[in-house]
Amino acid sequence: MVSAAAVAASAFAVAPTATAAGDRGALRPGCQWDAYQYYTQTCQVFSPAMGRDIPVQIVASTNGGDKALYLLDGLRAPENKSDWVAKGNAPRTFEGSNVNLVMPGDGTASFYTDWKRPSVSARGPFNYKWETFLTQELPVYLENEFGISRTGNSIAGLSMGASAALSLAYNHREQFGQAIAFSGYLHTTAPGMNTAITAAQLSAGGYNSLDMWGGPFSPERKRNDPYLNIEKMRGLDLLITSSAGQPGVPGDPAPLYDARPSVGGIALERLAHLSTQEFERKARAEGLEATFQYEDAGVHDWPTWDRNLQTAKGRIEGFLGA
């Protein structure tokens, strides 16, 4: 494993030429082959803003494609990897694809945003500067080591990561031209949502929501609320999905008779469904072009998002020219 200092020097030095995209068989600096396979590398990328290595799982494109799909986790993202690999099966879904996959880990309860002050949690105080990392630091490493373009990419996320994917896209239009939200809560300043976010972050490890965006009426909360920033999304390629919270998969009646579905998964997906419908009503009223897809079956869990990503694959590849 390359040291943090070495990775930082590699990532942020001015390189004479960037690494060619698409060389799936080349292990990059700071990376190890992941046990999941499918050419998945787990890379430790140093973030000056956060003062530590950030684990990022990356799959290089097949035939030299220089565009990437960034995939963001939900609230309980693991510390040393992205759940989009083992649970979301993104590398398998994009096997043989000319799209680079970029899947950061360690974003627990972060909303992938720059926090106002160091977070206080069960893990101790540390800086969350995710927007800076994803839009300023990581793209330099990706360009130098994987040949990935800094512009015209796609970003997708689930649940917490869904609203973050939209806000990162509309706040960074050059880097992202496509945004995809799976099972998201897209009106984060709605009545009750501040309380819900506070409770969720507390339950995820003692995180204090006030450390993130400050008080309920702070400018940061408004800036990161997709519902309040629909005008900024014009021209983005948008795909937004949710399910109705019915256990099972489309067309399969068997789960209707299963008495063991996840109560939490049902409730969370139904809330995401209502939030998505609310967002759609406002988007339609304001003339925003976006695609909304709803399923009757599916709860707030990985089988739903694995299926969602498979369904979205063609659209993503088409947008990225892959």
UniProtKB/TrEMBL annotation:
Alphabetized UniProt keyword annotations: Signal, Transferase
Protein name: Trehalose corynomycolyl transferase B
GO molecular function, a single term: acyltransferase activity, transferring groups other than amino-acyl groups
Superkingdom to which the source organism belongs: Bacteria
Signal sequence, start to end: 1-20
